[in-house]
Every structure is written in structure tokens, then in C-alpha cells.
Amino acid sequence: MVAISLLLWCSILGGALLLLDACATSFHAGTRPPVERLAALKPGVSTRADVTATLGVPQGQGNAALTAPRLEVQDVLVYQYVETDGQQVHGHNLLVFVDKLSGLYQGYMWFRSGQVLGVNQ
Fold it and tell me: 108, CA 20 to 30 Å: which among 15, 47, 83, 100?
């Protein structure tokens, strides 16, 4: 009786794992950055509030010092989206720069990448 119950439990668990594996081949995280809305933002004119009203709430934020010789720290708003279909993974990243002192929009950097998933050897 115990052996039959254990065998039945293992069969159910094995079937559930196969079903879960079949369902888990696609995945996405974050929100696709709305890059088509960037034209509405004007460097040196639009504010941080304008940026979030236009693009939405960022997934993260940080700081960057980009201009030499005087390194002025900029706030960086990060918009990210990652998706995979189980065979390829694609990342979309939008970094929006806002002057830390004035709170004015300075510009953006937008990039995306893709990679075919495979077995590493």
C-alpha cells in the first residue's frame, strides 16, 4: 500500500514537473520602455515630473557623472524590460538623465540586446 502510494505520488509529481516545464518557457519582467514618447521631452526644459508623467514610474534609479573635466552628477532613471521565449532572451533598457541640481531632463540612452539561449560548454 505504501509502495503504491509512493509510486502514485512520484507519477503525479513527475507529470506536474513536465507540465510546469512546458509552461515556463516564456517569461517577461518589467514594462517595455515607451521610447516613442521620448520626442515629447525637451532637454533643459522638461522636468523630472514631466519625465515620469510621459514615461511612467522607472523600475530603478541611480547616479552618473558623465562630463569631464567637471564631473556633474546626474540622476539616472532606469526603465527595463526582459523577455524570453525559452530559446532567445531580449533586453530593452532606457536610461534617462536628469540634472541633480535643477531637476531638468538632460537626455537619454536607449539600447536593446538579444541572445540565443543554448548549452554552455
Answer: 83
